[in-house]
C-alpha cells in the first residue's frame, strides 16, 4: 500500500504543538521508521516524542530546536 505524500508546512509557520511521525520524519528528512526507533530506544535520537493514547506525537518546538529554526 502506497503512502500519501506528506504536505509540509514550514516549521516557522507551523501552529500546531506536535506533528505526526510521518510529518516529523519529513521535516527531518528521515524515514518514519527511524523516528519510531528513536522512540523505542530512549535517548538514541535528537528528540523524544510524547505518547498520546498510544500514539507518538513529536513536539514542534523540539523539531525547531534540532533544525535551528527560530520560533
Description of the molecule:
By secondary structure, the chain is α+β, with helices and mostly antiparallel strands. It has one domain. A hairpin with a 2-residue loop joins strand 2 and strand 3. It starts with 17 loop residues before the first strand and ends with a helix.
Descriptors for this entry?
3 strands, alpha+beta, 71 residues, three-stranded antiparallel beta sheet, globular, single chain
Helix content: 25-40%
Mean pLDDT: 92
Counted beta strands? 3
Shape verdict: globular
Summing up helix and strand content along with how strands pair, one would put the structural category as alpha+beta
Entry summary:
The protein is α+β, with helices and mostly antiparallel strands and 71 residues long. Helix content is 35%, strand content 14%.
SSE topology sketch:
Layout: E1 18-19, H1 21-28, H2 32-40, E2 50-52, E3 55-59, H3 60-67
Antiparallel strand pairs: 1-3, 2-3
Amino acid at each position: 500500500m502506497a503512502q500519501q505524500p506528506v504536505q509540509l508546512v514550514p516549521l516557522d509557520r507551523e501552529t500546531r504543538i506536535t506533528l505526526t511521525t510521518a510529518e516529523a520524519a519529513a521535516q527531518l528528512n528521515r524515514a518514519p521508521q527511524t523516528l519510531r526507533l528513536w522512540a523505542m530506544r530512549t535517548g538514541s535520537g535528537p528528540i523524544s516524542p510524547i505518547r498520546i493514547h498510544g500514539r507518538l506525537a513529536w513536539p514542534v518546538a523540539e523539531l525547531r530546536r534540532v533544525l535551528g529554526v527560530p520560533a
